[in-house]
Amino acid sequence: MTPEERRAELAESLAEVRERLAKACHAAGRSPEDVELLAVTKTFPASDVALLSDLGLSAFAENREQEARGKVSEFAELRPQAARRWHMVGQLQRNKARAVARWADVVESVDSERLAEALSRATTNALETGERERPLDVLVQVSLDGTTGRGGCAPEDVPRLADMITRTSDLRLRGVMAVAPLGGDADVSFDTLSSISERLRVDHPEAVDVSAGMSGDLESAVAHGSTRVRVGTALLGGRRLTSP
Fold first, then answer.
1. Mean pLDDT calculated for residue range 207-227
2. Which whole number is the average pLDDT over 72-93?
3. Mean pLDDT, to the nearest integer, of 7-17?
4. 49 three-state secondary structure
5. Burial class (CB in 10 A: 0-12, 13-18, 19+), 129
6. I need a surface site. Which of 41, 43, 211, 240 has the fewest CB within 10 A?
7. CA-CA distance, 229 to 92, in Å (whole number)?
8. pLDDT score for 148
9. Residue 36 DSSP class
10. Burial 139-172 (b: 16+ CB within 10 A, else e)
């Protein structure tokens, strides 16, 4: 596929996703401007990110630090003047915190105090060495099915983790993130997340982000107050293998 053909393919997919978002927002009585589209570019090359940037997107997500590191650098070379905001959405080990703090604008998968502490130290170090210019925005990932296999802390642990994050100097609590349980009822899951978000904002009014909904369930997420949907397959197609 030539770059021109790939651009046309992505443009068509983007138009379809935006139409779905617009319809979902209309059904929920919300403005499409209230829901951010986050392109999940894992396993796709930096050239696709560049094309999406040309088509007007500026928020991109990765779930593996090693792959993201090279892609972020390559994209910066391909589109040095482009607006961009990189999100880490995958499970993150503490020993990767220092590397992530060098390229991520947002980490959506903070699910433990130990990880938050590691990210805080890494961000402070990156600010001191000039490897980043601003504090790190973070979201608390919530497990909605009682398991930790896909990441996330228990709902009852969210307040304590949120309080700990706000006590750090270089992390900024922005809200919550969750993945609907496999085989579960998305409406029930996202309604639960909405309630958790509402309770969190009582003590942390700045934590307004609700990152929920993917290619298969974004309509349900929007209906329950998601402010950011994370779309990969519906936007970029089937996963392609790339070298990390």
1. 97
2. 96
3. 98
4. helix
5. exposed
6. 240
7. 20
8. 63
9. E
10. bbbbbbbeeeebbbbebebbbebbebbeebebbb
Say how many C-beta atoms besides its own lie within 10 A of residue 222's C-beta: 27
Walk me through the domains of the chain, giving residue ranges and CATH numbers. Answer: 3-230 (3.20.20.10)
Run of H or E residues at 88: strand 85-88
H helices of 79-157, in order, are: 97-103, 113-129
CB contact set of 112 (below 8 Å; sequence gap of 6+): 153, 161
Which residues are 110's β-sheet partners?
140
Token pair belonging to 155: 């709902």
CA-CA distance, 95 to 90, in Å (whole number)?
A: 14
> Element (H or E) spanning 165, and its range?
helix 158-167
Given a cut of 70, is residue 241 above it in pLDDT?
Answer: no
pLDDT at 182: 86
Q: Please give the Cα distance from 72 to 81 (Å, whole number).
A: 13
